Amino acid sequence: MKAVFDSSPLIAFFFELESPETLLLLRRLDYELLVPESVFALERVKEPSRRALDRLVEQGALVVLDPIAPKEIDAFQARYPSLGKGESEAILAAKHFVDTGSTTRCVLD
Question: Of 22, 84, 94, 98, which is most buried by a Cβ count within 10 Å?
Fold first, then answer.
């Protein structure tokens, strides 16, 4: 099973609630924790996000997804202009997994 995250849930669990272990419990339920490349890049520009996210990726607890084609993101955002790039990429990534038969959850704020 897969869980694709936008930035707000990551910020909430890791930095606001200071409870990353709660989020990481999903791994015990056999969820693969995934983050779109644009979300990862956005959250990595500041501390303490940079160290925490890098550590999780190094440990294999969090997987950074390959970028989605800009044309696909642009077309999606044209249909849903109130969504940001990270939200759009998370939704599109989750949809790709669902379309290939994977049980997937998209975690947004």
Answer: 94
Residue 109's CB is within 10 A of a number of other CB atoms, namely: 9
3-class DSSP state of 17? coil
* Class of residue 16 by CB neighbours under 10 A (exposed 0-12, middle 13-18, buried 19+): exposed
Distances (CA, A) of 50 to 4, 47, 105: 19, 5, 24
* The pLDDT of residue 33: 94
Distance CA 70, CA 57 (A): 24
pTM over 0.90: no
Dihedral angle sign, alpha carbons of residues 22, 3, 15, 55: positive
Average pLDDT, stretch 85-103? 95
CA pair distance 106, 59, nearest whole angstrom: 22
Conformation bin of residue 107: beta by default, left when phi > 0, alpha when psi is -120 to 50: beta
pLDDT at 9: 86
